[in-house]
Design brief:
2 domains, elongated
């Protein structure tokens, strides 16, 4: 297959559909697995949210609400 026929085959609607389908499938598969960095990030987010809630409660109690 030379470069000219490669561009022609990619220009067909079936070729574009196949590339799109495979790209979406790979993205969905990749997003399903959580690595250690994502788990750590979620823990940090949760801790920050809890700290913010506690700060809000402390502020409310100091104000007498």
């Amino acid at each position: 297959m030379n470069m000219k026929t490669a561009f022609i085959s990619l220009g067909s609607s079936k070729g574009l559909f196949a590339i799109l389908f495979l790209s979406v499938a790979l993205v969905l598969i990749g997003c399903d697995n959580q690595g250690p960095a994502e788990k750590t990030g979620q823990k940090i987010d949760q801790t920050a949210e809890e700290a913010g809630d506690r700060m809000g409660n402390a502020t409310d109690s100091l104000r007498g609400n």
